[in-house]
Amino acid sequence: MGTLYKRAKGSRKWMMAVTINGRQVCRSTHTSNKRLADQLLSRWETEVFEGRFHLPKSTPPPFAEWADEFLARVAHPNTHKRYGSSVRKLKAAFARAKLSDVSAERIDEYKEARLAEGVEPATINHDLRVLRRMMRLAERKRLIPRNPFLEVDFLKQGNLRMPHILTFEEEEKILAVAPPFLRVLVILILETGMRSHREALALMWEAINFANDSIRVRESKTRAGIRNVPLTARCKTELLRWRKMLGPEFSPFVFPNMRAPARPRNDIRHGWAKALQDAGLDYFWIYNLRHTFASRLSAAGVSDLFVAQMIGHSSPGILQRYAKAIDEYRRDAVRKLEEMRAEHAPSRHAPSTFINSENPL
Question: For residue 345, is pLDDT > 60?
Fold first, then answer.
């Protein structure tokens, strides 16, 4: 049975205590409202009774120390770099705190402070996702009794920016001005849906099976990304042409670093931006070519489940993010069909060749 109390006379906030394995554990309710404090105590008692609240195995480490240990566990270099930015911000915010001091209230304070600095909600949510993973792992290792994120809400981001779905006319404009390596890369992504950096740019010649018309993606962002990708005739032709120009004799990578052929090319931002400029198009991320591949599959009548499998997603839920763009792509396809029909339709004033006035049948 738990109890409510106040630390000293004049204290405003209520404390609560429960007995776990013969040991009394105390914590603050962070509220001066007794009714709310009683509800929090009841919730805590339920967690203890159901075995969902565990005492830490040892004294919780400082937050900064655990943050460094968590980051060291991240193996993939790109993920490590991305998480590192968030970890630095979190360490600055919880510099003097122990891991067990990071409560839902302190996380909410972190959100408010970052918003006051003018930081976008999407950026703050990214940091919160990293923090959630840190605290989830800490709970699993019994460094903290409970993950505080059970009581934390992410910030609302408003309307997400819709991806740019490439039209066939835009595609032709880009291919007309793109340098050879970029032309092959654009066609590869448009025809396979491969991720630009982690999959396409890291592609090795040995992963391409020209006999079976397939590509084996061995490294990806997720487990679902490890897959066999079928080659279209167009993509195969472009890759074979590219192999004659710069094949495995020069580098094991399909898109090598020209100064260091033993390594893949890792930066295409300048070349991509210049190609869009030369094509007379507004800038958009090359990653949108992957969205375009998925949208074209959907427009062709492929089910969302198979589209998700083709692009290496574990579920088709992500496709909802650009469903509106897919709908617009479909409407554009219908408009083109109507235009083509109008161009080939017989003149309204031309005599009909189907009806004979003397013999209508």
Answer: no
The model's pLDDT over 298-323, given as tens digits with 9 standing for 90+, comes to: 877 777 777 777 777 655 555 555 54
What does the pLDDT look like over 269-300, one tens digit per residue? 899 999 999 999 999 999 899 888 888 888 77
Which of 102, 104, 96, 107 lies closest to 144 in space, CA to CA?
Answer: 102
CA distance 170 to 286: 13
State the CB neighbour count (10 A cutoff) for residue 309: 16
HSE, side-chain direction, 13 A CA sphere, residue 37: 19
Q: Which two tokens stand for residue 332?
A: 């554009």
- Contact at 8 Å (CB) between 292 and 166? yes
3-state secondary structure the chain: CCEEECCCCCCCCCEEEEEECCEEEEEECCCCCHHHHHHHHHHHHHHHHCCCCCCCCCCCCEHHHHHHHHHHCCCCHHHHHHHHHHHHHHHHHCCCCEHHHCCHHHHHHHHHHHHHCCCCHHHHHHHHHHHHHHHHHHHHCCCCCCCHHHHCCCCCCCCCCCCCCCCHHHHHHHHHHCCHHHHHHHHHHHHHCCCHHHHHCCCEHHHEECCCCEEEECCCCCHHHCEEEECCHHHHHHHHHHHHHCCCCCCCECCEECCEEEEECCCCHHHHHHHHHHCCCCCCCCCHHHHHHHHHHHHCCCCHHHHHHHHCCCCHHHHHHHHHHHHHHHHHHHHHHHHHHHHHCCCCCCCCCCCCCCCCC
CA 154 to each of CA 104, 113, 161: distance values in angstroms, whole numbers, following the listed order: 12, 14, 18
Residue 308's Cα: distance from chain center in Å? 13
Joined together, the tokens standing for residue 194 give: 């491969």
The pTM assigned to this predicted structure is: 0.54
Residue with tokens 């609560």: 16
pLDDT at 127: 93
Q: Which two tokens stand for residue 326?
A: 């897919």
